[in-house]
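Data availability (excerpt). The following record was deposited with the supplementary files.
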Amino acid sequence: MHLPQLLQLPLSAAAVVSAEKSFRRNPVIGSRRLNARGLHRGRVVAAARLSAWRRARLAGRLDPDERAQFDRDGFVIRQNALPPALFDAVQHELATVPRDAWELRQGHAANRVMPLPPKADGTAMAALRDWVASQSVRELVGYAAGRTGHILTSLQTIEVNPLGGEDDPQAMLHADTFHPNAKFWLFLHDVGADEGPFSYVPGSHILTDARLEWEHAQALNAAQEGNVHHAAGSFRLAESGLGALGYGGLQSFPVKANTLVVADTFGFHKRTPSQKPTVRTALYGILRRNPFTPWNGLDLYDLPVLR
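Predicted structure:
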């Protein structure tokens, strides 16, 4: 181990009880010797048990049908999610108000992210931010994440041109990290079956014995894995391997505009490869916190100065 790594070792060791997931960046989390002795396995099990404990304390606040769907499948689909007047106002602002954006290109997909207004300003986009903070949305996303807390939100436009560039890494089946966490998309346009809809493996948020053994096996060599996303802790899986983990097949979800999809992205998912050039915009949110703290809420990022 080189001197810089030795100096960073205390911080690397402390990160074991955090949301840190990179096997390549963190020499402790990526240690083959420690993972052979059960380090990654232990992190996965502890995170799952704590998430189940926190979810049990949120369960009574959810719509029973949505809770049952999530417990079974790992995702919830809510149609006509926004009130009609707000949805129309959001659509109008999207069409008429230019917005600054950050762009990330991954293969032949461009991901443009546009922040929502930080405070009430009379716009539909600020009202959209308040909608995310409503109890109905906040607690559903928190249940999917295995804990409530600050939900990072933005407008997200995905542009895909399958005719040029390298493959989109988000179109490969994967789990985002080693513990329950949540992402959501409020789709502001129809997304057809040939337009790269969200796909998910129902039930793959459940930690089966076979999944745990697979996680353990991946961790042994993840630091040396050629796929940078896999090495960073977002494990990739061929669809042919789902049955061995005790899961069923992949399902894609074409949706109508104004459909909310909330999913635990510990479950296997991907963006279905688009069959033609497509552009779509959604409200995108993510809730991912330290899985090893026992409480719901009490998130410093909910403080206005940090938010």
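Summary of structural features: The CA atoms of residues 113 and 156 lie 5 Å apart.
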